[in-house]
Design a protein that fits this description.
- This protein is mainly beta.
- The chain has a domain of 47 residues.
- It has one helix and three strands.
- Strands 1-2-3 form a three-stranded antiparallel sheet, with no helix packed on it.
- It is elongated, with a radius of gyration of 26 Å.
Length: 87
């Protein structure tokens, strides 16, 4: 805005170069593409199990559970969820 003379009365007196771009900061803000879809499927129960650990957004006051882990069998699609107190 100063270079295009859109502001009057502003004096830029700093001769310091701007901060360089921090590569770890940029990498932390990047979005990751999702995993590609798999073409193979399990051919029998318990051959392939998908698992994920989640943090409870609302702390369980009565049972002190902070996390829950889910398991999904790829063949049968059977799902189970287990609450955890600690990781």
């Amino acid at each position: 805005m100063v270079k295009q003379q859109l502001i009057s009365g502003l004096v830029m007196s700093s001769g310091i170069a701007p901060d360089p771009i921090c590569k770890p900061c940029l990498a932390g803000k990047m979005h990751v593409n999702p995993f590609p879809s798999s073409e193979t499927q399990a051919t029998c129960p318990l051959e392939l199990i998908h698992s994920d650990l989640h943090v409870l957004s609302l702390f369980s006051l009565t049972l002190d559970f902070c996390y829950w882990v889910s398991f999904i069998d790829d063949f049968t699609r059977f799902r189970t969820v287990i609450p955890l107190r600690v990781k």
